[in-house]
C-alpha cells in the first residue's frame, strides 16, 4: 500500500495485561475524556479543538445535525503499524467498525451537510455501498486522487492513487460553491477557441484533476510556476499520464517536502484539502475530521476561515497536531505549491545511467 491515512482507527488494539491502550499504566484523561469510555451527550459541538481519544466515542457525544463538512481518511486495514495501533482486522470486523462511525457521521451532519471519504482499493467498493445503500448518503462523485511518490512494488504495478467519495446527506440540498474562483478552471472555449460565448469565470472542473504548466515541454521551474494553470483535456497532459474522467493529480507529501510535519508517513497535501473545504463549506462552517492525524484538515479549515474539530487516537499525534494548529492564523496561505508539477521536482533533466548497464554494488 503506497500511502496511509492521517490517523489510526478509533478502536484500539487489545492491550497487554495491566496496560492502558495508550501505553501508560492507567488511562489518561484528555479534555475531560477517558479514551474508551462513554462520553455524556454535549449540548453543542465544540469548536477549534483537537480531542484525543476514540473517534466513535467522541462522535456519539455530539448532538444531532451540528456539523457542516466531514473529511475522513481512516486506516485502510492493510496491516500498517501506527504508534499505538496496527490496522489488520478481518474484513467483517473492519466493515462493521466503519459502519459504526459512518452512521454517526450521517447523524451529526446537518441536513445539507457533506461527507468526503478517502479510502484505498481494498475496501472502496464496500464502503461506497455501505455509505449509500445502507446508511443513506448520496454519492455525488467518485474521484480518484492520482499522486506521485507511491511505494515501489516488485510483484505488481506501483499504486499511485486513492479514492475520494463525495457524499451528501440530502440528494438536492447541499453546499457546493460552484462560483468560487479558486475552484473553477478555464474552459476549452476560452483556451482553444477564443469563443465570445465562453463564461469569463471558466467552468467547474471534471472529477479529473491535474494542475501544472499548460505546455508539457516547459522545463524552467520559475516560468512553469508563473504559467501554471489547470489542464483540462487529455491531449494537454504531460507524456506518460493520460487523464481519465475521475482522477485528480496532487503529489503525496514526500519526506523532502517543506510542508512535511515529520512524524507521520501519510500526510495529506493541504492543496487537495483546500479544494474540498472551499467547495463543500462556507466561512464560519464547522469542519470535522474524525482521524485528524497531523492535523491537515483542521489546518486548512482554520486558514480558510472555517471552524474546525478533530479527533485523534494517538496522544502524541494529538499533541503535535494541536501545536501545529496553534501556530496557524486565519488567512495564512495553504502549504505546498498550488501547481503540483512544480512542487514535485522534475526528472526531465536529471542524471541518467547509460542504457543497458545495470547498477552494480562495490566489490
TrEMBL record:
<dbReference type="InterPro" id="IPR001091">
    <property type="entry name" value="RM_Methyltransferase"/>
</dbReference>
<feature type="domain" description="DNA methylase N-4/N-6">
    <location>
        <begin position="67"/>
        <end position="321"/>
    </location>
</feature>
<keyword id="KW-0489">Methyltransferase</keyword>
<dbReference type="GO" id="GO:0032259">
    <property type="term" value="P:methylation"/>
</dbReference>
<feature type="compositionally biased region" description="Basic residues">
    <location>
        <begin position="349"/>
        <end position="363"/>
    </location>
</feature>
<comment type="similarity">
    <text>Belongs to the N(4)/N(6)-methyltransferase family.</text>
</comment>
<dbReference type="InterPro" id="IPR029063">
    <property type="entry name" value="SAM-dependent_MTases_sf"/>
</dbReference>
<protein>
    <recommendedName>
        <fullName>Methyltransferase</fullName>
        <ecNumber>2.1.1.-</ecNumber>
    </recommendedName>
</protein>
<dbReference type="GO" id="GO:0009007">
    <property type="term" value="F:site-specific DNA-methyltransferase (adenine-specific) activity"/>
</dbReference>
<dbReference type="InterPro" id="IPR002941">
    <property type="entry name" value="DNA_methylase_N4/N6"/>
</dbReference>
<dbReference type="Pfam" id="PF01555">
    <property type="entry name" value="N6_N4_Mtase"/>
</dbReference>
<feature type="compositionally biased region" description="Polar residues">
    <location>
        <begin position="338"/>
        <end position="348"/>
    </location>
</feature>
<feature type="region of interest" description="Disordered">
    <location>
        <begin position="329"/>
        <end position="363"/>
    </location>
</feature>
<feature type="compositionally biased region" description="Low complexity">
    <location>
        <begin position="7"/>
        <end position="20"/>
    </location>
</feature>
<keyword id="KW-0808">Transferase</keyword>
<dbReference type="InterPro" id="IPR002052">
    <property type="entry name" value="DNA_methylase_N6_adenine_CS"/>
</dbReference>
<feature type="region of interest" description="Disordered">
    <location>
        <begin position="1"/>
        <end position="49"/>
    </location>
</feature>
Amino acid at each position: 500500500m503506497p500511502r496511509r491515512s492521517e490517523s489510526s482507527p478509533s478502536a484500539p488494539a487489545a492491550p497487554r495485561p495491566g496496560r492502558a491502550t495508550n501505553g501508560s499504566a492507567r488511562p489518561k484523561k484528555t479534555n475531560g475524556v477517558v479514551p474508551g469510555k462513554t462520553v455524556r451527550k454535549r449540548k453543542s459541538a465544540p469548536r477549534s479543538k483537537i480531542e484525543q481519544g476514540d473517534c466513535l466515542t467522541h462522535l456519539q457525544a455530539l448532538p444531532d445535525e451540528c456539523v457542516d463538512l466531514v473529511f475522513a481518511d481512516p486506516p485502510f486495514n492493510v496491516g500498517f503499524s501506527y504508534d499505538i495501533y496496527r490496522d489488520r482486522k478481518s474484513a467483517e470486523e473492519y466493515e462493521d467498525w466503519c459502519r459504526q462511525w459512518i452512521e454517526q457521521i450521517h447523524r451529526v451532519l446537518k441536513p445539507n451537510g457533506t461527507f468526503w471519504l478517502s479510502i484505498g482499493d481494498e475496501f472502496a467498493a464496500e464502503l461506497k455501498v455501505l455509505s449509500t445503500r445502507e446508511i443513506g448518503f448520496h454519492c455525488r462523485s467518485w474521484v480518484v486522487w492520482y499522486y506521485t511518490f507511491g511505494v515501489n512494488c516488485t510483484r505488481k504495478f506501483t499504486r499511485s492513487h486513492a479514492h475520494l467519495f463525495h457524499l451528501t446527506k440530502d440528494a438536492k440540498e447541499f453546499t457546493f460553491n460552484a462560483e468560487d474562483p479558486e475552484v473553477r478552471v478555464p474552459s476549452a472555449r476560452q483556451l482553444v477557441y477564443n469563443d465570445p460565448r465562453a463564461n469569463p469565470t471558466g467552468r467547474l472542473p471534471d472529477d479529473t484533476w491535474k494542475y501544472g504548466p499548460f505546455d508539457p515541454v516547459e522545463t524552467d521551474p520559475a516560468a512553469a510556476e508563473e504559467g501554471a494553470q489547470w489542464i483540462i483535456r487529455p491531449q494537454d497532459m504531460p507524456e506518460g499520464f493520460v487523464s481519465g474522467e475521475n482522477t485528480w493529480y496532487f503529489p503525496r507529501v514526500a519526506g523532502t517536502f517543506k510542508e512535511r510535519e515529520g512524524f507521520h508517513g501519510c500526510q495529506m497535501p493541504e492543496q487537495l484539502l483546500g479544494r474540498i473545504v472551499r467547495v463543500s463549506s462556507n466561512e464560519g462552517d464547522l469542519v470535522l475530521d474524525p482521524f485528524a492525524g497531523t492535523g491537515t484538515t483542521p489546518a486548512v479549515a482554520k486558514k480558510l476561515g472555517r471552524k474546525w474539530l478533530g479527533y485523534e487516537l494517538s496522544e502524541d499525534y494529538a499533541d503535535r497536531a494541536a501545536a501545529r494548529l496553534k501556530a496557524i492564523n486565519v488567512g495564512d496561505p495553504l502549504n505546498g505549491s498550488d501547481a503540483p508539477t512544480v512542487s514535485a521536482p522534475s526528472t526531465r533533466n536529471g542524471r541518467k545511467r547509460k542504457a543497458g548497464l545495470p547498477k552494480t554494488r562495490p566489490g
